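Purpose: get a first structural picture of the assembly so the mutagenesis plan has something to point at.
Setup: three entries, given in the order below. No constraints added.
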Amino acid sequence: MLNYDIVIIGGGPAGLAAAISAKDSGVDSILILERDKELGGILNQCIHNGFGLHTFKEELTGPEYAGRFIEQVYDRNIEYKLNTMVMDISSDKVVTAMNRTDGMIQIQAKAVILAMGCRERSRGALNIPGYRPAGIYSAGTAQRLVNREGFMPGKEVVILGSGDIGLIMARRMTLEGAKVKVVAELMPYSGGLKRNIVQCLEDFGIPLKLSHTVVDIEGRDRVKAVTIAKVDSNNKPIPGTEERYECDTLLLSCGLLPENELSKSAGVDLSMVTNGPVVNDSLETNVPGIFACGNVLHVHDLVDYVSEEATTAGKNASDYIRNTASASSDKQVKINTECGVRYSVPVFVRPDKMNDKLTVRFRVGNVYKNVNLCVYANDTLLMKLPKKVMAPGEMEQVILLKSKLNEIADLNTITIKIEEA
Amino acid sequence: METRELNCIVCPMGCPITVTIENNEVTSVTGNTCPRGEEYAKQEVISPIRTVTSTVKVSGGEWPTVSCKTKSEIPKGKIFEIMDSLKGVSVQAPVKIGDVLIANIADTGVDIVATSNVEVL
Amino acid sequence: MKYDVAIIGAGVTGSAIARELSRYNANVCVIEREEDVCSGTSKANSAIVHAGFDAVPGTVKALMNVQGNEMMDKLCEDLDVPFNRNGAFVVCTKNQDRSALDTLYKRGIENGVKDLKILERDELIKMEPNLADDVTCALYAPTSGIICPFNLTIALAENANENGVDFFLNTEVKDIKKENDSFIIKTNADDIEAKAVVNAAGVYADAISHMVSSTKMEIIARRGQYMLLDKTAGTHVSHTIFQLPSEMGKGVLVSPTIHGNLLVGPTAEDVPNKEGLNTTGDGLGSLAPLSALSVKDVPYRQVITSFAGLRAHEVNDDFIIGEDEDTKGFYQAAGIESPGLSSAPAIGVALAGEIARKEGFAKKDNFKETRKGILNPATLSLEERNELIKKNPAYGTIICRCEMITEGEIIDAIKRPLGARSLDAVKRRTRAGMGRCQSGFCSPRTMEIISRECNIPMEEISKHGKGSEFIVGINKEV
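Result (structure tokens, whole complex):
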């Protein structure tokens, strides 16, 4: 059995930032376990620019952004193992992992930081009817094939879902010579960032059809055609609105799901909304000493926020090791989310133990224009922020002040909701 | 007088911007929340520019390709000419972030630089 | 190429016959249109070993089903195929006539099905708490089981191959001519000559039969659509739950699979297209309300994939097994729909026996009865696993994250007899790509492994053979 103070599961943007922060907070015994053959995670295949505006005040590509964090990990001599799959995490923080040189190893950690990221929703999970030929890829798989392996997965493309990866891949495939015929989106709004709609679709004249979905896939061996149709307000296809596109490829960009199979094995409680762990203000889960950050906690829109969140997790994990007192025994106040606010991270706040400033992140369930975002402590209005636009594709945040919360007598709930202006 | 509605692409906020143009000169920009947005809008209506990101073949590396970008923005109309110029180019590993892979791509005066490290296999 | 027997079709039926024939001193080959065995009806069905109460007493179906069911334990042990007699219920709801259950019960007894019982709700609900509130009683068949149809078919084929049977994959039969006392089989590749021919061609058995025999046969493709749920839903029921036929049709089953997923289906629609393996919005949409009649709260949020299979339905509703009445030396194994998987071991023994008798084959003394499956490292202890990785480091690299499949298993699937050459073939042998992400992460890596191990360029790596290649070329060269 090996022993480390902190074991970090995943060497993507969240894991790297958490490791750097934990090291800078004074913990020396840190191990990052990464399943791929290099550090950096999914950023390595996100070769487009637009990363790092918040963190570095300049516009970087994914590999460049990852590279800056990887350099910091090297500079600090933080240990990591590549090509290493974590097989199990127990509730007493024994991590079982495997690779081809060490075989099966067991590591006793004082704290574990979950940073496994997320996966894409597959065709099967979307119940798209039709044949099951080659040529149906999740946008991320196609991205890896094109950007890293140097292959072209198809020549004539239909994309379902206007999530950012789908939009980015519309441009990538177009630039590399493919014809992207249409992007269909089930919802009446896009799930991606506005800038990506402009730069990736409008720049190239690719039509975006909102409130549309795929109703048929043709082709026994390889995709031959895809039929899309308009959907009604219950997202059911409307007969007679079908449009058939001949193509050899269907890319899916229909949402990301946090990968929490390992968290479950450790006994971590998950949120039904985010599919990520339920955490308190220190990003600690219900299992003492197990922390979570990045897309395994909730799917972020910008990697800059992942890095920021992971930095907090890394620092809190190191504080936990020094104090060893479990945070979960403290008084916790639940953050309720209502009226269009779908969830919040964290879910619980410890008014006595929290940092002076706490960033609470969340997403809304619909497009809202000219509304007020309101935060209540018990029944007291703490803040009212006028918002021109709020959309499900973009993460929102509010900052709670410890001093303000502690002014409230008998604080038992915090509520975040949208109110009409 | 002509007005154009834009979505700012400078940062993820994507502000909706209205630009007024008179005699091929921008007379007003509204809707932006930062100075970079104003700058973008002026540029976008007169002569739009973009950063191009793609890949170039690598021989002898741990990966078959290296990601790359135009070191600065190039005229939007030059995008496909640049993509054509990247075809058939192959560089030798190792490649480091920032290495110039192709100088003055498609006569834009802008270099193509590597955005990832590729070690020798 | 001359053979004593040529079997057309490498599904579970053809493979079972091939294995049984490989007990004899005979030159046997199997001709398969697809690039792998188990690529037709055998690959997409309910994966149930039926007890045998469903078929009408006296039919070939009834006989083969009950015999096949009884043979399954030993066969699975010999061939290293996981098999679990999890038991089945046929549930009756308060709006249904429970006398139909009695009919099934009596039918089962007459067919020779053991240990059948009718249970009342209070007892049922203890065994299966998620049964629908309207369920009043059920027929309980403890001998019903679950199995992986890929695993069984591949094991039969591998064992046949190890015992000398040749397999011609990617080989489509175009015509059959009888010349003197042998058959000339025209294919898209070389002609194959055989003294006897077995027709195990699934939905195409009628077309194959008509090439050489005047016996009338009609096989209808009856489509069944299914949904497969994540392993987290796999314990929603522990038995296979059938429905009593009602005015809404035959009903659908809800069952755990041998690998721990939950399966719901099938629909039943006759389709004119024998390649009609497409799912439809209506078909998939019908499963949730139908399944709710027998099982409540099926967590449909956990669906990981849906698929369709085609049953080879014979118009007279029975299996056709034995030498053709019209053409001597031409043997039928046709109309094998449900319970075909359950019946395959018995069909193999019966038909191989008949052929051996008529063609005069003697048993060989070096028949290899057993076959070892692909090692599943997850069944090993930590120490054993470490030993394995030391000996072969490929077992230390996980390729499929969802099912935790190692590179070692994938290489084994490629290198063993009738080895995998496509991603679907790897998936059927190892489960790589069959998990919740549905091969999003592992497909590029599995492609690389096949490419490396078989020396096939990446552009030729396919999902299921020629025409289903994944990539259209190298970027910037297309």
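The mean pLDDT of chain A is 95.
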